[in-house]
UniProtKB/TrEMBL annotation:
Annotated keywords: Cell membrane, Membrane, Transmembrane, Transmembrane helix
A Pfam family hit: Polysacc_synt_3
Domain of life assignment: Bacteria
InterPro entries listed in its UniProt record: Poly_Biosynth_Transport
Compartments where found: Cell membrane
Name of the featured protein: Oligosaccharide flippase family protein
Keyword Transmembrane helix assigned: yes
Organism: Halopseudomonas formosensis
């Protein structure tokens, strides 16, 4: 591992760790200020908002950070112009269908959706800036911006608003202020320049952009199918409880995925020699998370979130066993992006999504615990396919890798069935 990669990992680790520490702290505090229904309303709104963000990521960070060194500014220009164009199209499309969308989601507030879409548009502009920062190894700037904006923006604003408003608007105002601060910081600190680009440049860079967007649409299905099912058949309160359990699970996986995606993609275009060490780290992390959830999970939920969230305990245990597969797939995803192998990423995501949809429709789980089990199985399918499609690139024995994944799943299943 080169010194530049080590420094990038250190800075990205500090930035991501600071952000996710503050995110965890805000979850703890806001869970005592807001109701499960408040969180359920925001989670329902994010079903549409997350899809809008995926479309904007056609011009996201990945096409900039994975570009050749002599094409970084060109890719940045294409990414930024694409983000702005799609923001205008998405905004217009939403306004035309606003009433129907609100009725489907069961949301009464037009202002809520419009402010959240404004957050998405701001974050659409952040993608190219983060990409050029990673391409130019400005990891210290990215880390500083992440910590400062999240503390001064989301953490302070959301908690203060929670005390004053006692409604889901605390979460919305926190997201908005954090996004604005992050954008302002990067504009001031990241060196970038626009180049004159034409159809050839757009075609060259957006080819991978649209490929990644297709994958992200499928990933969106994987991330939202459970929320859509719960919102449709169980209600906002159950959705709020499930979303807190899910959020606690994805904090470590998104933390690692952000560090890997931001630092490794520029290096994964060459020889990859770090997977075995990464997998060992993943095994240790996943084992600690599962043992913690089994040992003190219920008490921890009550102490940390409050007694009204005790029903989050069982889905949290099940989702804790999914951490191994999610963290493993974050590595394969970065390999596919770095090598611009979008088709392989699509196959992994499509089969994971198909598995989830089939299990939700055919199994029709009647509880959030059943939905969590469906998520675990879908994540196992996705990660195993990722291993099968990247084993040559990462230099591992496919038979041993698949056997390890199967062993982890069998152990997880035995423990879950004994609960």
């Amino acid at each position: 591992m080169s010194e530049a990669m080590r420094q990038g990992l250190r800075h990205s680790f500090v930035g991501a760790a600071g952000r996710y520490f503050l995110q965890t702290a805000s979850i703890v505090i806001l869970a005592r200020l807001l109701s499960p229904e408040d969180f359920g309303i925001i989670t329902a709104a994010m079903i549409v908002v997350s899809f809008a963000f995926i479309v904007l990521q056609v011009g996201g960070a990945s096409i900039v950070s994975s570009a050749r060194e002599d094409q970084v500014d060109e890719a940045f220009t294409v990414a930024m112009l694409s983000s702005i164009t799609f923001a205008i199209l998405i905004g217009g499309g939403y306004l035309l269908a606003e009433r129907e969308i609100l009725n489907i989601l069961g949301i009464q507030s037009k202002a809520l959706m419009r402010v959240l879409l404004a957050v998405v548009f701001i974050r659409g502009l952040l993608g190219p800036l983060e990409g050029i920062g990673a391409a130019k190894y400005e990891f210290k700037v990215l880390a500083s911006s992440e910590i400062i904006s999240y503390f001064c923006g989301y953490f302070l604003i959301a908690i203060l608003s929670g005390y004053l408003l006692r409604s889901y608007w605390a979460l919305v105002l926190g997201l908005l202020s954090q996004s604005i601060l992050h954008l302002a910081f990067l504009v001031l600190k990241i060196k970038f320049r626009f180049e004159k680009v034409g159809f050839r440049e757009f075609k060259s860079h957006l080819q991978i952009g649209f490929s990644l967007m297709a994958n992200k649409v499928v990933s969106y299905g994987l991330a939202q199918a459970d929320n859509i099912f719960i919102n449709s058949f169980m209600g906002k309160s159950d959705l709020g409880i499930y979303s807190r359990a899910y959020q606690l699970m994805v904090i470590p996986t998104n933390f690692i995925g952000q560090v890997v995606g931001r630092v490794f993609i520029p290096y994964f275009r060459g020889e990859i020699t770090v997977y075995c060490r990464y997998r060992s780290f993943n095994i240790a992390l996943s084992a600690v998370a599962a043992l913690f959830a089994l040992g003190v999970g219920e008490k921890a939920v009550v102490v940390v979130l409050g007694p009204q969230w005790v029903e989050a305990y069982k889905p949290l245990i099940i989702l804790a066993f999914a951490i191994y597969y999610r963290v493993d797939f974050k590595f394969f995803e970065s390999v596919f992006v770095a090598r611009r192998e979008g088709k392989k990423l699509t196959i992994c995501n499509v089969f994971g999504l198909l598995g989830m949809v089939i299990m939700l429709v055919a199994g029709a789980p009647s509880s959030i615990e059943g939905v969590a089990l469906v998520v675990l199985i879908a994540n196992a399918i996705q990660a195993t396919l990722g291993l099968c499609m990247s084993y040559r690139s990462i230099g591992v024995n496919i038979g041993r890798g698949v056997a390890l994944n199967a062993t982890v799943f069998i152990l997880s299943w035995v423990v879950i069935r004994s609960l």
